[in-house]
Every structure is written in C-alpha cells, then in structure tokens.
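Bug #2210: token dump truncated for DegV family protein?
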Amino acid sequence: MRIAIVTDSTAYLNKKEYEQDNIYFVPLSVIFQNEVFKEEVDITSDTFFEKVRKVDQLPTSSQPTVGEMTKLYHELEENYDAIISIHLSSRISGTFQNAYSVANSMSNINIYPYDSEMAAAGQAFLVRAAAKLAKKGLSVNEIIEKLDEIKKETEIYFIVDDLTNLIKGGRLSRAAGGVATALKIKPVLTFRGGEIVVWDKIRTKKKALKKIETLLEESIREKDYPIEATVVHAFCEEEAQAFKEKLAHRFPEVRFTFSFLGPVVGVHIGEGAVGMAWTMDINRL
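Reproduced locally. Full output below:
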C-alpha cells in the first residue's frame, strides 16, 4: 500500500526532509493587519521576527482552509492509496478538525487525520516516524499504533520571555500565566492533554534551561530505549546552539538535532523562546 504522509507547517521540517521522505504539508498563515503570509511559503522565520519588531500591532495566525486541504488530498489520491495527516494539537488550532472534515467528505482515498497533541519538534517526531514506517511498508494501523507509542513517550518543554501573547491568544489561561507575568519569572511550559500548561516557574532563563537539562537526564536514566532530542528556538539561534552543544557534550548517547519555531508559533510565544523535545529514537531501536 502506498501511504502519503501529510502535516502542516508548524512541524517546521526542513526542505530536505520533505523531499527525501515524501512528506507533504499545508501551511498555516500569519496576518499583519491586511497582509496574509503563508509560513514556510511566503515568509521565513527570520523575516517574520524582524517584521514583528517594526510593527505596533501584533500579527495573528490562521489555520489552513478546507479548500487548501482538499486540493492537496486530491493531488495525492493520484499516486497514493491512503493518507495519514498529522497536525498540531486540536486544543490550540482548528487545523486537525479541518483535516477531519475533509477526510469525511472524500471517497476516492482513505484519509486518517492524526492529532499530535503537540506542535513544532514534538509534532515533527511523529511526522518523520510515520514517513520512515511508511517506507518500510507498514500498514496504516501499524503506523498509527507506533505513533501512539511515540507520542506517549515524547516530552516537550520550552521557556518564553513573555507570556502576554499566549494569554491574549487563549493558548494559556490567565490563571496559569498571570502569576508568572507579575513576578517576571521564566516559566517552563509543556503540553498536557494537547494544551499548553505551566510546568514550573523559575526565576532566570539560565536556571530554567538547567531544569530542562535535568529532566532530560532523568529520562535517559529511566528509559530502556535510545533517545533523540531536538533543541528549538524563536529567533535566538546562537543561544539555542550553545545549549544544544552543551547537551551533546554531556549526553553523547542522545542523538541531537536542531530546529526553529516559525511565524505561527512565534505569534504566540514571541522572540527569544528556547525549548527542547525528546522521544524514543526509532532509528536505533
């Protein structure tokens, strides 16, 4: 069976991964007043953050339309027998719901929408795994079963400099974020049940990064499988690279990669965020 893997732009894969692993994506958009930019198509991450610095009104974001998803799925039905469509958490975006609606309306190909319950690097783990498993000839059910296992084992933590955008955008409750904002501390955020929640509140970014490092160390000690980890950043590459290099030196048994947080996620978390996600490394199982 020929299985296509679809995701959305918030997985923030690179061009090589899309091309080599036959992964397809639909872009989400950012809106500066009346200007609409599709991320990873019309605007890059760096350009986005540079543009935000120059405007008074913060941009907003929007999900792919039903029409955009329908168009991509119709194109894929010419060469594939099924589609697994993996998207950012349905608790923070309607992208998954749109994929679900389109899947129910099409009859020429079976479409399996999958809620990652995460975004960015956590979502990317699932997309890359699905593509590799599809290449190996696993069935749709076998792939989805493995995705469930990987999702269960995935941890994602990130630090933002300012919670204002997350609270205003409804991605973080005022109750959860209000205290941290008032005390000017650096909260460590994570995903739980598909929602962004405050995991811990720490006084400085340096200490917050150290806390994430400790969490990774605990996972390495407790898990009986090899781990892969991805360090991500929002327009603070030098700081994030230094964090990654430190971790790679301390934990040589972990396979580290590096990624970024693009415009749509950047709308909500702002410039300067650093984070890390890790999970089982299926390439070494």
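Output looks complete on our side. The radius of gyration is 18 Å. Marking as cannot-reproduce; reopen if the truncation happens again.
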